Amino acid sequence: GRFRELALSIDRTASSRRAGRKSQHGAVHQIPRRHLALPIVSVLRHPLDRAVSQYEHGFWRSNPPGDLDAIRSRFASFPDIDFGEYLELQRTFGRADVLQGQKLDEEIGPDTLHFLRFFAPDPERALSRLTSAALDSGAALEDLADVRFLRFERLVKDLVEYLLEVGFSAPSLDFVGQMPRINAAVSRRGSTWRDYFTPELEAAYRSRERLLFRVAEGLDG
User: Has this prediction a pTM greater than 0.70?
Assistant: First the structure.
């Protein structure tokens, strides 16, 4: 069939509504009704690598997650903040920007909230039922759509395996591994998430975003 990329309104946050921005990163609840019976496939990156990538990409520098004056009252040198300050910025202002006044357990992190809003067919219901207990038990996963996640770190392998499952022939997929990388972010040469996360930052992040780690590590068997 013909591939069509949709530019949809960015889900939820006040800052995106003010700017009227659109993105190709549509959420599950934005899938047109006529396509709801089709498989949903997405890419999942390890949470620690993803956090570092978002920091280095720097979209938040020119698009702060909240009122700029309020942010600078907390982070005086914004947008020149270090990685630890960035995580705190997202934990406070970024989280509030997603919740829009909704009250949730402070130990539920902003990336988990974005993940649920992105992959839940009914994100309002998913967030209304979200508690630390639901994260710990895995019950929060029941509010997600049936999504086939491909791991970012082995994307070519996972993609080929999936396409074979749905009926493509092996010879027709030979080109997949030969495609050059596109839209690849430039990162610090040789750096890893360990160059950014102190043990304390990692422990706190893993605790707040434990749902993401549960999903990501579940893909590793």
Answer: yes
Extract the runs of DSSP E, i.e. beta strands, from 28-124: 40-44
The alpha carbon of residue 105 and the mean position of all alpha carbons in its chain are separated, in whole angstroms, by: 20
pLDDT in tens, 81-133: 999 999 999 999 999 988 888 889 888 999 999 999 999 999 999 999 999 99
- For residue 2, which phi and psi values (nearest 5 degrees)? -85, 135
Cβ atoms < 10 Å from Cβ of 135: 22
Report the distance separating Cα 3 and Cα 26, nearest Å: 15
Q: Whole-angstrom Cα distance, residue 30 to residue 121? A: 8
Find the distance separating the first CA and the last CA of the chain, reported in whole Å.
32
Give the per-residue SS3 of 112-149.
Answer: HHHHHHHHCCCHHHHHHCCCHHHHHHCHHHHHCCCEEE
3-state helix vs strand vs coil in the chain, percent to 5: 55, 5, 40
Q: Compute the distance between CA of residue 150 and CA of residue 152 in angstroms, rounded to an integer.
A: 6
Q: Which of 38, 209, 49 is closest to 140 using CA atoms?
A: 209
Contact 48, 192 (CB under 8 A): no
Which of 50, 25, 28 lies closest to 39 in space, CA to CA? 28
- How confident is the model over 139-162, as pLDDT tens digits? 999 999 999 999 999 999 999 999
Name the residue among 82, 71, 57, 81 with its Cα closest to residue 15: 71
Residues forming beta bridges with residue 22, ordered by sequence position:
9
Cα separation, 142 vs 145, whole angstroms: 8
